[in-house]
Amino acid sequence: MTWQQLKLQINSAHVDFFEQQLLSHGALSVTYLDAKDQPVFQRELGSTPLWDETYLVCLFDATADLQPLLQWIRLNQAVINADSLLIDHIEDQDWERSWMTDFKAMQFGQRLWICPSWQTPPDPHAINIILDPGLAFGSGSHTTTALCLEWLEGAALQGKTVIDYGCGSGVLAIASALLGAARVIAVDNDPQALVATISNCDNNAIAAAVMTICLPDAVPTITADVLLANILAEPLIELAPLFASLLRGAAPVVLSGLLPEQAEAVLAAYSADFIMDAPRIEQQWVRLTGLRK
């Protein structure tokens, strides 16, 4: 089956109105895409942040008459980038399988791999994390996650207690367990993240005695040897005193999910309780590490 795909660029302030208009003109689906390679962050649970400039990609039946819609778009060029308007014909395909082919096994350091559950691990003798991201963040493909995995791969975790605060898919928590941690606390305020973490722990045969998965209010009263937090700059700053209280001795903290211009403020928030290292920057993302004083 052939579909008509219409793509246009619009200011995000108008997307709700235009989405409704597109649906009323027969659009079967509307997808939002970044038009300017701009990072966005979910500051509140349940919110849907958008880029300042957004592409709307709409699918229509092959027989749909788009002329009335195109005429309506021409009348609203004040808020639409008319030069961005594209109409293509695309063939039907197995969309789920097409999505899956975009995710490949990824190696971190010498011994750690993340492998999608539908693919055979390239190195069966390596430490392989079998992962389905689900609806939670953290497949290993994002630079912030990769920076944390890079640190973990080189750390001595045997017998240690690790906290993964903001666990998402559970990838960092699972990596910690497979790399030898005796106990891992995976924490997130999003119930969907906890569901994904539980599923991925099952896929990797992580014992319940090793992995505790919980909301922030249910974190056990313990002190850990390592704390990882791949979240956002604002909550990292707010959580600095809590993180210090959750660690014992000269334990390391590993922070990611922030941009270079945010690093100074985060470093300042942690300087009271931690001796912080110089930022590690890769592809415009930052990882901060330090030792508790």
Instruction: Compute the number of helices.
Output: 9
Helical fraction: 25-40%
Q: Could you tell me the mean pLDDT?
A: 85
Shape: elongated
Strand content: 25-35%
Give the SSE order as H and E letters: EHEEHEHEEEHEHEHEEHHEHEEE
E-strand count: 15
Oligomer: single chain
Q: What count of structural domains? A: 2
CATH class of the largest domain: Alpha Beta
User: Could you tell me the radius of gyration in angstroms?
Assistant: 22 Å
| SSE class | alpha/beta
Low-confidence stretches: 42-47
Q: In CATH terms, what is the architecture of the largest domain? A: 3-Layer(aba) Sandwich
CATH structural fold name of the largest domain = Rossmann fold
Compute the separation of the termini in Å.
Answer: 64 Å
Major beta-sheet overview: 8 strands, mixed
CATH superfamily label of the largest domain: Vaccinia Virus protein VP39
What distinguishing features does this structure have?
single chain; 293 residues; alpha/beta; Alpha-Beta Plaits; Rossmann fold; 2 domains; four-stranded antiparallel sheet; 15 strands; elongated
Q: What does this molecule look like?
A:
This protein folds into two domains: 2-92, Alpha-Beta Plaits; 103-292, Rossmann fold, CATH 3.40.50.150. Helix content is 27%, strand content 31%. The chain is built from nine helices and 15 strands. The strands form three sheets. Strands 8, 9, 10, 11, 12, 13, 14 and 15 form an eight-stranded mixed beta sheet that branches. Helix 4 (143-153) runs parallel beside helix 5 (171-178). The longest helix is centred in the last third of the chain and has 13 residues, at 191-203. The protein is elongated, with a radius of gyration of 22 Å.
